[in-house]
Amino acid sequence: MSSAAPPSTAASLADPEVAARFRTWQYRTLIATMFGYAAFYFVRKNLSFAMPAMQTDLGITKADLGLFLTLHGLLYGVSRFVNGMWADRANARYFMVAGLMLSVGANVFFGFSSTVLWFGVAWMISGWVQGMGFPPCCRLLTHWFPPGNLATKMSIWNTSHSIGAAVAGVFCGYIVAYGWRWCFFGPAILCTVAGVILFILLRDTPTSVGLPEIKVEGAKPEDHDDRSSAGYKAFVKQQVFLNPYIWWISLANFFVYVLRFAILDWGPTLLKEMKHFPVHKGGWMVGAFEVSGIVGMLLAGWATDRIFKGRGARMCVFCMIGACAAMFLFWKFGSTPTLATVFLALAGFFIYGPQALIGITAANLATKRAAATAAGFTGLFGYASTLVSGWGLGLLVQREGWEVAFGALLGIGAIGMFMFVLAWPAKAHGYQTPAS
Question: How large is the average pLDDT for residues 289-312?
């Protein structure tokens, strides 16, 4: 059954009281989704800090650990895509909280496991339910913020990735001293509390709290139609699956995520074995990678809106050049903790620009009507990258060492930059693009 289009936003927001209430809910939604998604990272990136101790305690090989990362990433990518289509039709509040609580359960299961088989099962379950985190956030933000400043606002939101991973890294870097299992039990306890807070703060679309939907120039009345209608399915097919620019940025996402996960998933191990730094220092250094990524995301979002007029792919070209240069400097000149931290932070600064902008660009090209589907599609490619960054990198390091592996990572960064060049002509958004 089709829902009626909401009242005109232009008329409703002329009322100062309505406009003020709308702004309050915008900021509340932005802060709540940032808090909630940061919590997802506590029960997702904790494995990286348990890995060195698990190798010692249980005799698990790098190839096994890489396989956990790969299976988790592949399932996460498929889940994010499937859940993206569901999230476009679901209540984002319930959807996101359910995903976080299920992730808590998967972490507890992992913490009580002791064999490779059950570790694999637990982390595969985690990979699937973690895919319930990003799509509702994408749906919420495209309903609460117009495309003209979505890159800026969504870049602010994207800092939740780095905040969550950085705080989780420092937390797990210390708590692992009490045993690697506490890298799973500790975050699970914290995220149970976070789930309750998130449920209290979140609501779905503006209409769910008596406010009008955002009016976008070029949008059509059918933008609010039934998500099960033939017209909606035709729109999604044309605007997402047959859109060449979404394909190019999705392919680019594969290579961006290889670089990102090489640091996030293997960082503590890499820093211990390649640079000979202790694990607790590695936690702070990976944290620096994440924190500098916050600055990089914010500046990339600002530059996309102000300099490139919403064309995210163009900004990503320059970010990837910087990322490759920073990785090279870390590889060849990061011989001391200070230098390694500086170069790693510089790499985070550039890598997180594209990481944030790909989802924003996809959401704008697909419009709020199919934003979560498009973002899920790009995520499918991003997390397919764990074939390389997880199992592939673990196997390569086991056979050839970190020096060879790092040279391969630089080549991967160059390919990602070329994919963004191919997407350079893409428009800022798809609201005026015909659906057929």
Answer: 86
